[in-house]
# Entry
Amino acid sequence: MSDASRSDLPASETFAGKFAQHIRVVRALIRRDIRSRYARTSGGFLWAIGEPALMIMLLAFVFSFLLKTPPIGETFIEFKMTGFLAYFLFRQPSNTGAGGINYNLGLMSFPAVTPYDAVVARFYIEFLTVLASTLAINMLVYGYYGRLPEFRVEYLMLCIALTFGLVSGVSFVNAVLFWRYPSYERIYSAATRPLLILSGVLYLPDQRLPSVALDVLWWNPLIHTVAIFRQGYYPTYNPDFISYEYLIFWIILLNAVGLSLITYHRYSVLER
# Structure
């Protein structure tokens, strides 16, 4: 198509026009999601912070009886917080995003709303909510102890970016599979429950596991993101099993497959 032909296209048909429409639709879906989740109940957002906080305190309390000192750092609460928040940053947004098509199925009759918009809006608002709860929990924990760790911000930001890539890919793939095969949602939920144990949330994999077990768990992408997150809190913690190339491979693969599935099934979703 020539430049002259492109200039004759309606604004809504150009890339800039479609992108602007996507942003408007996602913003509208996010506002709708916020109203449905938080506006009706005063404690909705507080529970988003309270759920991981309660889990961290429970784990810290239990392990304080099992071990005299944490594997690294000074307190069990801090150690469990770094593991659980990194895991929670993946689990919650990916589960919420995966339900994006089913949750917004009634809105698919509107021409402006696409399955892609529905999934992006769902995992985006949940990711921001978990980030907000992560900040709030850090403020509570370190406010209680009256000190701050020597944060390595570059590792925290890197973990957030890589986890966001994994969340988007898993959300796109599972959103189509959850819609297409309803029984798959239950299978996926059962299959991913052991990830809390298998992702190094409760322990340091390179210190607590034999090399054979670590070689097996290395294939789990979350064991890498959890370790990167902990690097942001502990200056002396530098595990050598982390592979950024492996994480990037999964991010590219999952997003490519997920976007392909959404594109392929787009009109099938709209027809239902």
Observations:
- The chain is about 75% helix and 0% strand.
